[in-house]
Amino acid sequence: MKKVIQIAMLFVCIASVSAQNRIIEAESTTISKHTVTIKNKVIPYVATAGTQPVWDKDGLVIASLFYTYYKRSDIKNDTKRPLIISFNGGPGSASVWMHVAYTGPRILKIDSEGYPVQPYGVKENPHSILDVADIVYVNPVNTGYSRMIKNKDGKYPDKKQFFGINADIKYLAEWINTFVTRTNRWRSPKYIIGESYGGTRVMGLANELQNNQWMYLNGVIMVSPADYKVFESDVPVSTGIDFPYMTAAAWHHKMLPSALQSKDLLEILPEAEKFALDELIPALSKGGFISDTDRKAVAKKMSYYSGLSERVILKRNLDVTPRFFWKELLRDKTGQTIGRLDSRYLGIDKNETGSSPDYSAELTSWLHSFTPAINYYLREGLNYKTDLKYNMFGPVRPWDRTNNNVREGLRQAMAQNPYLHVMTQSGYYDGATTYFSAKYSMWQIDPSGKMKDRFTFKGYRSGHMMYLRQEDLAKANEDIREFIIKSTPKNGAAAKY
Fold first, then answer.
1. Which of 110, 146, 423, 434 lies at a CB distance of 3.0 to 4.6 Å from 245, suitable for a disulfide?
2. The domain made up of 28-229+368-487 is a member of CATH 3.40.50.1820
3. Domain ranges, ordered by start, for the chain
4. Which mean pLDDT values do the consecutive 10-residue runs of the chain (497 residues) have?
5. Half-sphere exposure of residue 455, counting CA atoms within 13 Å on the CB side?
6. What pTM was estimated for this model as a whole?
């Protein structure tokens, strides 16, 4: 009889668990206290993991965003303490990468170059910027635990309110306004940081926050920024601007001629950049009307600076894209491919033939270490419990890329706000959002050149996620600290020209 009762109770428990709907709570918070040692000093902080609603124009909840907020707890007056609002990109990527690998108080357990190790997990981040700024990591709709919410009739809202360049910017600006209001941070210096597509996002947010939320920023930080204006350019710009990255990747894999290979990377990149601007882009601009003599001369120099054969370059009509480069560089040496987001990584394809790799060697490696770590950390480290799946990448397609004016938006925000500074951080081995493309975007934001003293560019000997390399983790965080100091007005300096 006792056994029958136990079995019956088991079925009741199973039924109870299975009956729970796996949906996001519009509002939730889990608060915990921690410490981290940064620069040999113990920093106490409070971590808040939770959800905050997104409302439509009628004030109805249409989504809820999951966030993690770290606030240093030994600061009595936070009116002078910066707040950094952090995004990743995709579009469709969770705010996990920079959260547990770059600026946050806990980072992945990985090796010194960023490769996975077991057992998976996190450890203290001695380079975190939490000593100088509080940070909130925001997950846009359908990323992380963030989700749309059904209305009273059981229908989801129109996806067009979320999934597009301008829609994304608009609802996130509203969400930020609410967050800053709820946490009493209106007086704090404020910064937004975005990685990859997050670069597009924060360029647009700077203007949206300023002109529609009346929130003025001190800084915009773009980490390996994606700029669709470059991606969608004609071949001369899109191919030409990416070319210096190929010099960097070829140098790393020792595929350049000895005259270049014997020099340091930073000695040869200016040469490749000059060639790209002065010779390659003009040559590509001529298309099929370039003379055979000039075509061969340019192909010879491309070979010199890329490690590819002149024969292959000529067969491509000088249009050597990064995608082809990832497949071609080591084809005749080891038969391996190189990574898209970080070309230090190596992959193995089914066939050595073809014009692009079968998969992204670096991304599979990163998902290997990030996915277990973030699921463990949020649940066991921050005690945030949910049965929702944590979307490393969520369903956000189709993504509306029309009316993309984020570059102009950032220019306008800077012109209107003398306090506003911009920093770009890029890895030389990033073949997706290349470092020279990031420089080019920076140059195009302010055609007048009157604000160029408020732009900063920092390069690193790694890829898209430069912070996965231990040496660059330290350097990149220190660069953010210096940027914050530079962009924080001294002695009550007024915002005026």
1. 434
2. yes
3. 28-229+368-487, 230-359
4. 44 44 90 97 98 96 98 95 97 97 97 92 97 98 98 94 98 98 98 98 98 98 96 94 98 98 98 98 97 98 98 98 98 97 97 96 94 97 96 97 97 97 98 98 96 97 97 98 93 89
5. 20
6. 0.94
